[in-house]
Amino acid sequence: MTWPLRLWHHAWTCLTLASMASILTPGAGTLTSTWQWMNRVLWAIYSTSKAKGAIVISQLDPESLEVKKSWETNIRKNTVANAFMVCGRLYTVASYTAPNTTINFVYDTATNAGRAVAVPFKNKYRYNSMVDYNHAQRKLYAWDNFHMVTYDVRLGRASHGSS
What's the superkingdom here (predicted)? Predict the structure, then answer.
């Protein structure tokens, strides 16, 4: 697969800045490219003209950046503000400016299924332009109007068909 120069720049930035990183362009309907390095799994969250605005998740080889597998979700990129991966699941945040918003959708790459959820999420400073999960610290890190914000995350075992 040939990657546009802008995506290569994002990948290089991600791989050289830290072992955990994501880049998300801020603004409405902005889910253009997110990279997340997690337990030697590199995720790309983006959309393509072929997907017609649906969010696509790709698992990349961390060394070569070749796509190992991709999933086209039924989540429209212009209906969410942010997205992040946790343990092979894509979670989306409904608004980047509303002070009280929700994590509103989850897509599980293991089951190829997604569903709506309503997990409360606070944008304390009212402009959340990036959210990323840190597996080692079990925290969400967010960049909210020039403030680094963290959220503690409790993970439980999911029963079949739930997240």
Answer: Eukaryota
